[in-house]
Amino acid sequence: MKKNKIFIACDTSSISKVNEIIKKTQNSKIKIGYKFGLEFLNSKNGRNFISKLKNKIIFIDLKLNDIPNTMSSTLKSLKDLRINYLTVHISSGLKALKEVKKVCGKIKIVGVTTLTSLDNEDLKSIGHQRSLKDIVKLQAKLASKAKLDAIVCSPHEVKEVKKIFKKEIITPGIRLLGDLIGDQKRIMTPKEAFQNGATSLVIGRSLTKGNVKKNIQKLIRELK
Ligand code: C5P
Fold first, then answer.
1. What is the distance between the terminal CA atoms of the chain, rounded to a whole angstrom?
2. Mutational pocket test of ligand 1: of 122, 202, 219, the residue with most ligand atoms within 8 Å of the beta carbon
3. Is the distance from the beta carbon of residue 204 to the nearest atom of ligand 1 less than 6 Å?
4. Which of 4, 54, 50, 56 is nearest to 29 (CA)?
5. Given the DSSP bridges, would you call strands 31-37 and 57-64 parallel, antiparallel or unpaired?
6. Ligand 1 atom 18: the closest Cα is on which residue?
7. Does ligand 1 come within 6 angstroms of the Cβ of 205?
8. Active-site residue, selected from the candidate residues 24, 63, 98, 213
9. HSE (CB half, 13 Å, CA atoms) of 137?
10. CA 148: distance to chain centroid?
11. Active site includes 63?
């Protein structure tokens, strides 16, 4: 089971909560990485905390979406952190993606396709004419062209994305059996997502809400 990699979304502004998540998710059965997004990185002490983390797989989820120069400069300003993965929106365009790849060094650049909180109707309301699946396929092509290291998509699109993008495929929108869906729209259980071909998963609230240790044990049982 160790080959299953799980990135735990540390969506909080509390250092003690992150410490609790890290402490309670140490185990020998699954490979764990820690994902820090806008909430933690923008909190008063969040960035400093990450700069001191040692021997952890660190996933920085900034979902950069800006002009090429700002994207590559932002990446350079993150270089003091020991980052393993960094997210950028594929919709920032081929040039921006290529610029980021030029300066990323050992950091794996993860292209985010269409957010798992959106569905076809949402896309229509922001002016997209094509279906969600078609847009994600185009995004996968761009990610491939820009030689990104990984891609984020919903578990529902993994099969299609896999045909186009041949590296790591990371899926959020994951819920343990019986958990609340919340604001997500295109979700699956961890087992289903791996069966569909995801190489790693992002899981937040299903693991971090309530008893973290029990949640991890539930995840391990579900993956058997
Ligand atoms: O709590 P939950 O498991 O829904 O959290 C999912 C995490 O994955 C959040 O941190 C969210 O920002 C992130 N994410 C996502 N959909 C994407 C990309 C990232 O939900 N397309």
1. 8
2. 202
3. yes
4. 4
5. parallel
6. 115
7. yes
8. 63
9. 8
10. 14
11. yes
Which conformational region is residue 173 in: left (phi greater than 0), alpha (psi within -120 to 50 degrees), or beta? left
Longest dimension (CA), the chain: 47
CB distance 184 to ligand 1 below 6 Å: yes
Please indicate, yes or no, whether the overall pTM of this predicted structure exceeds 0.90: yes
In this structure, are residues 94 and 146 in contact, taking their beta carbons and an 8 Å threshold? yes
Tens of pLDDT, residues 106-155: 999 999 999 988 999 999 999 999 999 999 999 999 999 999 999 999 99
Task: Report how many helices (DSSP H) and strands (DSSP E) the chain contains, helices first.
Answer: 11, 8
Reference 88, options 71, 63, 106; nearest CA is 63
Is 117 exposed, middle or buried (CB count within 10 Å of its CB: 0-12, 13-18, 19+)?
Answer: middle
List the residue whose alpha carbon is closest to atom 19 of ligand 1: 172
pLDDT in tens, 156-206: 999 999 999 999 999 999 999 988 888 877 789 999 999 999 999 999 999
Is the CB–ligand 1 distance for residue 152 below 6 Å?
yes
Between CA 9 and CA 18 the distance in angstroms is 10
* Residue among 121, 119, 71 at smallest CA distance from 91: 71
At residue 20, the 3 state secondary structure works out as helix
Asked if residue 90 has its Cβ within 6 Å of ligand 1, the reply is: no
